[in-house]
Every structure is written in C-alpha cells, then in structure tokens.
Amino acid sequence: MYARPVHEAEGRAVLRRCFEARGLTITEDYRLHDDGVPITLDGYDPSRRIGYEYITTEAGDRIEVTPAVIAELERRMVAGTLAVLLVDELDVAVARDLEAGAAAFLDEVARRGLL
To answer: Which of 44, 49, 80, 92 is deepest in the core (most CB within 10 A)?
Structure first.
C-alpha cells in the first residue's frame, strides 16, 4: 500500500497539535536569528525554549537547515538551553509517524525537566 507523503502544512499542523497538547504555547515561523542561529522554526515556544522544524523540499527548508545550523542547535540542546525537534519529511511515511516522533521527543524533553 502506498502512503501519501506528509506535506508541509499537514506536518506543521500535526506538530503544533502535539506540542500544544503538552501545554506549550507555539509561535509559528519563529526566528532564532537573534539568538545567533540563522533559522526560522516552524513552531517554537519562546518562554519554554522548545520547538520544532519539519524539513521539507516544498518549503525550501534544505537551504536554511544546513549542517552548521544543525550542529549549533544540537550544541544548545546538549547544553540544555533549548530543545528543537528536527524532522525530515524523508523520514516520515504518514502523519502518525510524525505524531509518534513528536511524542517521543516531548517525553524525552519532559524526562530532562525542560517541559
């Protein structure tokens, strides 16, 4: 059976729903540029410093989400200063995969005391 790819708008809606269900207040298209990371996240709670980016070709995200940006986000996540879920559309077959990934991420964020 062929699974239809999860498009940008659908992926963003799924992630927003998952994050808000955990009590986060999501601002869409949040620019982290002022924090020294040149990326605009699909969704972010600036007071909790938790967000997500659904990387799709449709949105042109592969231009902005470079190895250097990913490395800086990972450095900050290891330091505990923020938590950002990065999900590539190529790793998602259906929306429920995205929901499962978001749930696992948010569970880990909660386990670390950030949520």
So the answer is: 44
